[in-house]
């Protein structure tokens, strides 16, 4: 069984999920069908781990660099788990590109290269937003793309970490009539 709790943050309401011992999800309000990604029934019920996570989030949104003192248990394929572990290595207040992560994984596997798009798919399926910092990944050209919580939230999270935003941009997408 999974349990959930809401948290009001500066980037909107968040939903935290746990199996009672580990954090299994941290989702933005209106993020696509997060509960369908869980294998169990989700019940709103207090769990002690929620206190640790909400304290961590309070510290994070206060501009501090809190230490994670609770366990995380995202569920995914081996490839996704590998990408998510790389996300956890990105220092607070810094960014990397999808290509950087792809190259790291390719090197570890003894390959000459790996698809940045495959990494992007794994980053986009991260079930524990903010704590597993997928918002710190940007496009090779400095574009702020590919964030499940929305680009506005990505910008707010990077600003919260005092990332120098002067070299980033939000690509505009136009459609021809």
From TrEMBL:
Q: Does the keyword Cell division apply?
A: no
> What is this enzyme's catalytic activity, as reactions?
a 4-O-methyl-thymidine in DNA + L-cysteinyl-[protein] = a thymidine in DNA + S-methyl-L-cysteinyl-[protein]; a 6-O-methyl-2'-deoxyguanosine in DNA + L-cysteinyl-[protein] = S-methyl-L-cysteinyl-[protein] + a 2'-deoxyguanosine in DNA
- Name a GO CC annotation attached to this entry: cytoplasm
Is Isomerase among this UniProt entry's keywords? no
Domain Methylguanine DNA methyltransferase ribonuclease-like, which positions?
Answer: 5-73
Catalytic site:
134 (nucleophile)
To which species is this protein native? Staphylococcus lloydii
Q: Which GO terms describe its molecular function?
A: methylated-DNA-[protein]-cysteine S-methyltransferase activity
- What other comment is given for this protein? This enzyme catalyzes only one turnover and therefore is not strictly catalytic. According to one definition, an enzyme is a biocatalyst that acts repeatedly and over many reaction cycles.
Q: Which family does it belong to?
A: Belongs to the MGMT family.
Q: Which InterPro entries match?
A: MethylDNA_cys_MeTrfase_AS, MethylDNA_cys_MeTrfase_DNA-bd, MethylDNA_cys_MeTrfase_DNAb, MethylG_MeTrfase_N, MGMT, MGMT_N_sf, WH-like_DNA-bd_sf
Q: By what name is this protein known?
A: Methylated-DNA--protein-cysteine methyltransferase
What EC designation does it have?
2.1.1.63
């Amino acid at each position: 069984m999974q349990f959930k709790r809401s948290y009001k943050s500066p980037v909107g309401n968040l939903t935290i999920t746990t199996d009672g011992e580990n954090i299994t999800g941290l989702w933005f309000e209106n993020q696509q069908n997060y509960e369908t990604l869980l294998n169990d029934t989700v019940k709103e019920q207090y769990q002690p781990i929620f206190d640790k996570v909400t304290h961590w989030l309070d510290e994070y949104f206060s501009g501090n660099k809190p230490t994670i003192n609770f366990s995380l248990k995202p569920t995914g394929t081996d490839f996704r788990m590998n990408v998510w572990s790389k996300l956890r290595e990105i220092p607070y207040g810094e960014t990397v590109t999808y290509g950087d992560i792809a190259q790291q994984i390719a090197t570890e596997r003894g390959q000459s290269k790996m698809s940045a798009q495959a990494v992007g798919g794994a980053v986009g399926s991260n079930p524990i937003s903010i704590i597993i910092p997928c918002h710190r990944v940007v496009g090779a050209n400095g574009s702020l793309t590919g964030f499940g919580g929305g680009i506005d939230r990505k910008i707010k999270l990077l600003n919260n970490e005092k990332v120098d935003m002067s070299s980033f941009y939000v690509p505009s997408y136009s459609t021809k009539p």
